[in-house]
Structure formats: C-alpha cells, structure tokens
Design brief:
seven-stranded antiparallel β-sheet, Pdz3 Domain, Thrombin, subunit H, alpha+beta, 12 helices, 3 domains, six-stranded antiparallel β-barrel
C-alpha cells in the first residue's frame, strides 16, 4: 500500500506550471443520468455538437517580477565609457526577466450568455495577471475575474464580446447514480474542444482537497488542461466541474473527480453577487466519532460530529454548546458522519435560527443556534489556533492502563510549552513506546484538560477517573487534549490486567 501511495500525485493545475501534492492530479471528471435506448449504438454526437460551443479554453499568464538581487553597479569616474555600458547591461537584464511570463491552461463553460459569465477552477486563474478565453470558433478575448473560492476550487470570469455566446444550465447532481453515463468536454494539453465519455464510478469522494470534499468520481478520460471544464449528464445539464485526477504519471488512468453542481452552484451565485463566498459558520472545532468514542460517551452508534472546542463569542458558544457534545442533527438534517456538518452549516443562510439535536452526558438534548458568517469570522481572526508544542519533561504519575505519565503544570511548563494561564489540566510527560497513545499521536507536552468529560487539574485525580472507569467495566476512556491551542478528543482503550 505504501509503495502504491508514494507513486501517486495530485496535479491541481493541469497547466504548464502544475502544483504537485501527494496522491492526486487536479484534473476533472464527468457524469450523467439516463440510458442508451435498447438496440441503439452508443453515440454522443448530437449531444456533443450541441454542447461544444458552450465550453471555452482558458489561458492565464503571470509575469515574473524583476529580480531585486542584482549586484550594485560599480562606481566609475564621471564620463567613463564603462558607466554607460553597465547601465545599459543592467537595464537589459531587468527587462529580460520581467518579460518572461508563466502560462496556465484550463477549461471553462458559459453559464450566462447575456452577461458573459464563465465558470472555471480557481487554480486555473489564481495569481494571474492576464486571463484570456478562447471560444469554440477560435476567437480569443480578455476576461475579468469576478471572484474566486479556494475552498472548493471555483472561479467566475466575465467577458465582454460581440460574439454570440451559448450558455448551459446546471442540473441536479443529487439524483445521480453510480453507473450513469456522463460527458466531459475540455482543453486537454491545450488541444481545445475535446469530448470524452464515461460513467459515474463513485460519489461523495473525499480526496482531502478542502473542507467540503464531496467529489463525483468518473472513469472518463481527463487530462491536464481539463481543469474547470464541465461534466454533463445525457440531458446536457452540467452536473459537475472537472477538478482533479488520480494518476501516477499526470495522465488519465480512469480516475477523475468533479465538484458536484449542487455544491458549486450556490458558491458561484455568491461570487457573482458579492465577489466572494458567504458561508454559514457555527464556531466549533469538530472531529469524527469513532466506535471507541461512541462507547465511552454511551452512544449506540458511531455517528454525528464530536465538538472538540467552541470558539469564544461564536454562535455555538452563545447557544450553550460545550466540548464533548455530539451534534446529531442540524436544521433537520441527520449528521451521519463528521464531514457532513461543515457542508450543511456552510449552505445554511447567514442569520438563520436553526434547531440542533445533540448528545451530552448520556442523553439527547435540543437547542437553537443562529448561524454566523464564516468569512467574517476569518477576517476577525476567530479561526486561528496557537502553535503546536513538542517540549518534553520527565517525572509524574505513571498510568499503565493507558500508557501515559502525567504531571501537574508548573509555571516553567507553561513557559516551555506555550501553555496559556487560562488552560488547566495535567501535562503528559512521557508516553509508552508502541502504545495506543503513541499510535494516536499524543506527545509529551500535550495537556489533558478532561478525562471522561470531567475536568482534571492534578495527575492523581486523572488516575482515579481512569481506575473508576476500569472498575465500572468501561473498555476505554475519553481524553480532551490541548496542544498549542489545538483541542481534540482522543479515546484510549484500557489495558486489561
């Protein structure tokens, strides 16, 4: 498995200067709904002919800045012929470097013919000085970037032209089924209007590209330059935006990914209206509910989103949420797993009061929360976290059942580990090698704030809580751990005697 993963990479720009990330290639995919009539040969010719004029090729350039590290020009006597020579030489060098542009190629599609709105990927036009759009008839015009969204890799452009534009509509990506036919059109390797076909291979893929990963997977041939291109169903509706491919070489191997239309369309409308997105915000840091965590909290199933920390003055704090709560339903939508909550909250209108069901202290509770604005919280620095600490210290109370050694926090510990005065708990000073605590990433210098949702301020109390859980027949204990302001829950199995 390790050998396989190390051979894969992610190309996010399908451009002449792609950005590489381990595991995946940012290219697109395709999807569709419908069936080929019985007895008919599978031809997409009529559909392709209709859709090709709506797909555009996008090129962007970014000029390199003039180097600032040239040596200073030597000093010559006034009137020396060398003075003019060196001045001319330095000017030519600066102009030469400044005129070398970087180029990026991608795809896009027209969504409003009257106003000239075009959708593509953010990574196709990011940091570009100039963006140009080439239509199906080879006419090229300059485009303006109206807005970009890095979280789901989208950008909206606008062109002003006398050309007759043909727009396409978004379809409902939620009704797609694995096995549906799809059509992808784009600009692979700069070749222009290229059509490929395939099926939907899988849905709701998480490729760790962003906080709202919910990709459609396809086997349609997708390559460099397809980024930002549309994925059509057999009705000719856009049901995805091709964004990434999984590949060991940078070329298509039949694993492509597209942003679903139902996730992209609200963000696109916000980019057009505001120039940026306006997403809902709850003000909690969450993590998955594992089977061990569910057992330690008394939950029957490992579902929901576990609240690890609550942002001060955020919507969740004002609604009374606490670390250790498990959010089960938000605005009537069941949260089957942690990754569902960020998207549900993001798509909720800002200022809306919604009902939330949660689990606390072994029973279900209900409350209401007024949704805030994510972008505003980011501007105010409410989402920032402190640095991670890896300082070590010896001594303390050894608790063999969880493989940890704990100690009280001294003033020196706070200075060495950057622990604020308002953080109380016990300090992890040592971890048993190859223990579950080590496997789950705990480190000396971490602060255990709670054990089984009870605050701990000295190592003996922590030991007593763990011993009580063991005698009560519990198979695991739940730790709330703070590392440099980054708070999370960790469930550790109790060793049997």
């Amino acid at each position: 498995m390790r050998t396989l993963l190390t051979t894969l990479f992610l190309v996010f720009s399908l451009s002449l200067f792609p950005a590489f990330l381990p595991g995946i290639v940012v290219a697109p995919a395709a999807a569709a709904e419908g069936f080929i009539p019985n007895g008919a040969s599978p031809s997409f010719a009529d559909l392709a002919e209709k859709l090709l004029p709506s797909v555009v090729n996008i090129s962007s350039t970014q000029k390199m800045e003039k180097p600032e590290d040239f040596p200073e020009m030597p000093h010559f006597p006034p009137g020396s012929p060398f003075e003019d020579f060196f001045e001319e030489f330095m000017d030519r060098q600066g102009q030469g470097f400044q005129s070398l542009p970087q180029a990026s190629l991608g795809s896009g599609f027209i969504i409003n013919a009257e106003k000239g709105y075009i959708v593509t990927n953010n990574h196709v036009v990011k940091d570009a000085d100039e963006v140009r759009v080439t239509f199906h008839n080879d006419v090229t015009v300059e485009a303006e970037v109206l807005g970009r969204d890095e979280k789901i890799d989208l950008a909206v452009l606008q062109v002003k032209t006398e050309e007759k534009l043909v727009a396409v509509d978004f379809g409902n990506s939620d009704v797609l089924r694995v096995g549906d036919w799809i059509l992808a059109i784009g600009n692979p390797f700069g070749l222009g209007g290229t059509v490929t076909a395939g099926i939907i291979s899988a849905q709701q893929r998480n490729i760790n590209a962003g906080p709202y990963d919910d990709f459609i997977q396809t086997d349609a041939s997708i390559n460099r330059g397809n980024s930002g291109g549309p994925m059509f169903n057999l009705k000719g509706d856009v049901i995805g935006i091709n964004t990434a491919i999984f590949s060991p070489s940078g070329g298509s191997v039949g694993i492509g990914f597209a942003v679903p239309a139902n996730l992209a369309e609200p963000a696109i409308q916000q980019l057009i209206e505001f120039g940026h997105t306006r997403r809902g915000w709850l003000g909690v840091r969450i993590q998955s509910v594992t089977e061990e965590i569910a057992e330690s909290l008394g939950l029957e199933e490992s579902a929901g989103a576990l609240v690890a920390s609550v942002t001060p003055e955020g919507p969740a704090e004002k609604a009374g949420f606490e670390p250790g709560d498990v959010i089960l339903k938000f605005d009537g939508k069941k949260i089957d797993e942690m990754r569902n909550l960020p998207r549900v909250v993001a798509e909720t209108p800002i200022g809306k009061e919604v009902k939330v069901r949660y689990w606390r202290d072994g029973e279900e509770g209900k409350t209401s929360v007024t949704v805030g604005e994510l972008e505003k919280a980011e501007e105010e620095g409410l989402l920032e976290t402190g640095p991670r600490s890896d300082a070590k210290k010896s001594g303390g109370v050894e608790i063999e059942s969880v493989g940890l050694t704990l100690n009280s926090i001294s003033s020196d510990d706070r200075d060495e580990n950057d622990i604020p005065d308002d953080i109380d708990g016990v300090l992890i000073t040592d971890i048993e090698p190859l223990s579950e605590a080590a496997e789950k990433g705990l480190m000396p210098g971490d602060v255990v704030v709670e054990l089984n949702q009870k605050a701990v301020t000295n190592p003996q109390k922590a030991s007593d809580i763990i011993e009580k859980a063991k005698k009560g027949g519990r198979s695991s204990v739940l730790l709330l751990v703070n590392r440099g302001g980054d708070v999370r829950f960790v469930a550790l199995r109790l060793k049997k005697d």
